[in-house]
Specification:
The protein is α+β, with helices and mostly antiparallel strands. The chain has helices at residues 6-18, 20-53, 87-96, 134-137, 150-155, 164-170, 215-221, 241-255, 271-314, 316-324, 329-368, 383-400, 402-410, 413-418, and strands at 62-67, 85-86, 100-108, 116-118, 121-123, 126-130, 140-145, 159-163, 181-184, 187-197, 210-214, 227-228, 230-235, 266-270.
């Protein structure tokens, strides 16, 4: 049977328009199902994009370590002892943990009122001591200058990198602050850069509201000895962060006379585990969206199938006459299947178009009023998802015509002619 038969499609169009209200209501069910599926897919994509944007630029294969009170007595030390990480621990980790790529010890100085001063202006900002490798853990966006480097660490230079919010408070827009002196917790430091973290992940406070100075300078200037408050370690490519986490903890326990099985004493935060939770969450959201969307679409498809059953029932005499006059079953099957497919496709493609248009309108509005803290970004439906929706639509249209087609084939010509 030729699908390009104009007479066939004319008959199909006449049949659909003959029952306008019934066809309209049935088509609306398909239209609404596809529309809801597209909107939910676009919204899920926007939510995923917004969340991932806030962690973009942060090394996901990183674990952070910090001391906790011991949970077991060991080598004469009582349970509940508080301990500190030291500079020597860092060197041992470098030598004995082969999977460690970047090691970034940190010190925190709090954010007391007036702890950062420039001229006659003062503010309360986070102060931290960092190593150059920290810029590889949390990528930096540079407005002016550079980040802390190895020479700053070696010579314990009194330099600092200020966040963009600190810059906006102390300097005029466009003014280059590199080379200026500010007072940080009582000591003067020369500004060498203005940066902001690319991601929204906060380690010791937002980078935009932080003053970072060389780790060794922090230890010396604020009498910290060789203490390390916080330690970030990034795994090499191909290495598992879980194994790295266990190896680093083993070194810390051995170096600080902690029982080898005392899990309580060494606190840690595995960033990779958190990202896996996000990934599982969004996988669940995608499955839920398809499940709910397909359920809504199925309701519309059932409506199409029902209207085709009624149509076949009303046209029983017509089908019988056509069979008696020599019409092949294939032509009758083709007509009924095509009617179902046409009704489903028209309503579904309209729903797909309206859904894409609504998502684009919302995206245009969000783009016109950008918000860096927004967790709903760029709502859209991927081309692959659109193809899947179209495939589901066509398949559903064919399925909707199966039952009416089967019924039409069961009608015998003589019996159909007798029916009133």
């Amino acid at each position: 049977m030729n699908i390009f038969d104009i007479d066939l499609w004319y008959e199909i169009w006449v049949t659909i328009t003959r029952n306008k209200m019934r066809s309209l209501l049935t088509g609306f069910g398909v239209f609404w199902g596809i529309l809801m599926l597209v909107i939910m897919l676009g919204s899920g994509t926007a939510l995923e994009t917004g969340v991932l944007r806030n962690v973009q630029g942060f090394a996901t294969n990183t674990a952070f370590f910090f001391p906790e009170r011991t949970g077991k007595p060991y080598k004469g030390f009582r349970k509940g002892r508080y301990w500190n990480m030291h500079n020597s621990d860092i060197e041992v980790i470098r030598r004995t943990v082969p999977n460690a790529r970047y090691i970034s010890p940190m010190l925190f100085g709090g954010s007391a009122e007036g702890n950062v001063v420039y001229g006659d202006r003062a503010g309360a900002y986070n102060v931290r001591g960092v190593y150059p490798d920290y810029a590889k853990v949390e990528q930096q966006r540079y407005l002016f200058g550079r980040f802390v480097n190895d020479v700053d660490i070696l010579h314990k230079r009194k330099v600092c990198v200020i966040g963009t919010r600190v810059y906006e408070e102390f300097f005029k827009k466009g003014e280059n602050p590199v080379g200026q002196q500010i007072r940080v917790k009582g000591i003067y430091a020369q500004i060498i850069g203005v940066t902001d973290g690319v991601s929204g992940v906060q380690i010791g406070g937002r980078s935009a509201e932080t003053v970072s100075i060389p780790f060794t300078t922090f230890q010396q200037a604020y009498n910290q000895g060789d203490i390390v408050h916080f330690l970030g370690v990034t795994a090499k490519d191909g290495a598992t962060i879980e194994q790295l986490e266990q190896d680093v903890k083993a070194v810390l326990r051995a170096q600080n006379k902690i029982a080898p099985d005392d899990e309580q004493a060494t606190g840690s935060f595995n960033v990779a585990r958190t990202f896996k939770m996000f990934d599982s969450l969004f996988t669940g959201v995608r499955l839920l969206v398809w499940f709910v969307g397909m359920g809504t679409l199925l309701a519309g498809i059932v409506g199409v199938s029902n209207i085709m059953v009624v149509t076949v029932r009303e046209r029983t005499r017509e089908i019988g006459v056509r069979r008696a006059l020599g019409a092949k079953p294939s032509k009758i099957v083709m007509q009924i299947m095509a009617e179902s497919l046409l009704l489903t496709s028209l309503a579904g493609l309209l729903g797909l178009s309206v859904g894409v248009g609504l998502l684009e309108a919302v995206n245009t509005g969000l783009t016109a009023n950008p918000n860096p803290n927004m967790f709903f970004v760029n709502p859209h439906i991927d081309f692959g998802a659109a193809l899947k929706a179209a495939a589901v639509l066509l398949l559903s249209g064919m399925m909707a015509g199966i039952l009416p087609t089967w019924r039409a084939l069961k009608v015998k010509a003589i019996d159909a002619i007798r029916e009133e």
